[in-house]
């Protein structure tokens, strides 16, 4: 067990504050934790999980704890970074006994062979989608990130990075407009880690709650994280390239308290764009299309060629960009493929469980018939 002090933070905290408050602990968590506290268990936030063990940040420091009690068969119920854990302080090793119900969760459906989903991060409030202005905007990709952000329950925020590389203010405002149309209900913020422009605004947004940085490699996530942290905690790409071993500090510190308040989670799995089951999220990204759809004559309108289709009418009028409708269809199609695969897997799983249960049932019947008072 290692004890890293939690009291080295540069922010001044009042004596009345719980030592875990900088890591997101609040009254609601405390209330939910009460039954565990009554059992003598300690609260802590899971910093990272690997091979049967996890690092949990408790009021006493970082505890290495065994996850045997919180690694059920269902991969979505496995303890993960961001969870609030109940740690049993007695015993060597210490065990995570349970974790509190998640407020939000990032779930990814994994590669085609295993499509049951994987939990990547829990209890995230802000999903910061980093999009580089150094390359041409890929609106479809932004929409995809938005879908998985909404799906998680976190509030998305699009950060347009490297704003210093856009030569004129008018050009920048056009880019911001484009992304805003693509992201209804989402704040779009141009920033530059190089000049510091916009970083203070972002710091203020993330100061309340837990944030994750999403975006493709090279988007400027690590640079931005360092700007927010006020320290070179994350390895920036160029350094990593020099290093040549793909080493990055982010693998050891997945959850960090920000000096201006708030928590930043950075886990490797969250960075790329995988395939996600995010039907509700897709709906939120394209909320203007879903609002139009309400006005279609047929409630099950597919917006293909139906009469009285409000979506096609908006397309005709130029109120709805064609790209937007195509992207919506594409993401829905993709999502349905994933769901179909997941369902097949689920069906197989349930089938197995039933066979197992009826086999057990038969066995116990036979045991009873045989007398002996044996159970199962
Ligand atoms: N000009 C400029 N370059 C930046 C900015 N932020 C990041 N970069 C550069 O973009 C590259 C990728 O950044 P990095 O933070 O490693 O991206 P990540 O892969 O998303 O973590 C690096 O060469 C950074 O120096 C910025 O605000 N302005
Ligand atoms: Mg990086
Ligand atoms: Zn329609």
From TrEMBL:
EC number(s) from the headed UniProt entry: 3.6.1.-
Annotated binding of Zn(2+), by residue: 296, 301, 303, 309
Pfam families documented for this protein: RsgA_GTPase
Catalytic class of the enzyme: hydrolase
CC cofactor note: Binds 1 zinc ion per subunit.
Domain CP-type G: 114-273
InterPro entries, A to Z: G_CP_dom, P-loop_NTPase, Ribosome_biogen_GTPase_RsgA, RsgA_GTPase_dom
Cofactor: Zn(2+)
All residue ranges annotated as the EngC GTPase domain in the record: 122-271
Protein's cellular compartments: Cytoplasm
Keywords attached to this entry: Cytoplasm, GTP-binding, Hydrolase, Metal-binding, Nucleotide-binding, Ribosome biogenesis, RNA-binding, rRNA-binding, Zinc
Main location: cytoplasm
Membrane-spanning parts: none
Record: residues binding GTP: 161-164, 215-223
Database matches in CDD domains: YjeQ_EngC
Family indicated by similarity: Belongs to the TRAFAC class YlqF/YawG GTPase family. RsgA subfamily.
Summary of subunit composition and partner proteins: Monomer. Associates with 30S ribosomal subunit, binds 16S rRNA.
NCBIfam families per record: ribosome small subunit-dependent GTPase A (TIGR00157)
Physiological role: One of several proteins that assist in the late maturation steps of the functional core of the 30S ribosomal subunit. Helps release RbfA from mature subunits. May play a role in the assembly of ribosomal proteins into the subunit. Circularly permuted GTPase that catalyzes slow GTP hydrolysis, GTPase activity is stimulated by the 30S ribosomal subunit.
Protein name in the entry: Small ribosomal subunit biogenesis GTPase RsgA
Record gene name: rsgA
